[in-house]
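We treat protein structure as text, and this decision shapes the records that our systems exchange. Because each token names a local backbone shape, the row as a whole describes the fold. An entry from our holdings is shown next, in its original layout:
>
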Amino acid sequence: MKKMIAKPFLKWAGGKSQIIDRIRKMLPAETVGRNFAYIEPFVGGGAVLFWMLENFPNMERVVINDVNTDLINSYKTIKYNVDELIFLLKEWEAEYHKMSDDQKSKKEYYYSKRSLFNLRTSNQTAQTALLIFLNRTCFNGLYRVNRKNEFNVPIGSYKRPQICNEPNLRAVREVLKKVEILNLDFAETLNYAEENTFFYFDPPYKPLSQTSSFNAYAKDEFGDEEQIQLKQFCDTLNILGHKWMLSNSDVRGKDKNNHFFDELYEDYHIARIEARRNINAHADKRGKLTELLIVNYANDKQFQHVLQERSVRE
């Protein structure tokens, strides 16, 4: 029986599935041979996490973190209580599909689930089931909360969405067995670093414009001050000898005079890569754009050698 490869169980704005190949090419040399620890302080949907777990069995320690408590509880639920989660999702999927031609009933059902989720009085497993249900049935699979931490995305137009992907949930549970799951400030992940640790950062992106802002993954804003604090944390890791990679938006691609990241990370290597924006209320605003991949080890001769070898192989 073919092994099921774990994939993200939530649709998450800024998911990295589409740029995994570029991330792979820019990994530090240590990931190829020696055992290492992997820490992801902003795990989000987990596309990079699941790819790393599949491709690097030599990871001795894997730590994920996110400030979004609802998201982190969903990882914990799948790790520790996937059977009950699957039971609930199957039940709700069957009920929702029965209403596929009754838009009024579907709306009532969706908004009752959204209200229940926002009360946050259910147990952790039920809250996770509600989160996955909303993610699968809301507009464009978007996760967004207001300053009161209330999920406020309207119902989507999917007729019979897949709400329970049991094979993937079980595959996710298997790979999470070796993963430590945290719900802390990103800077506290340093306490979990070992001698040979690689950090991958995928923070809420800096908006490309005032109207394009989407970093409402949690009730607290991640603005320029937080971006600067993150860079200072990266400086600390650099001093301590840890290698790291960071993703973010390319604000200069939108405004050639905006050098925010180019100046902030001027001491490191910045690569601009093509990506796609798939979550936008306006279809004509989805499409190709550039993003940043920033690393602190581009001058490492071993890294350059590995990059060259990979280019030749491909």
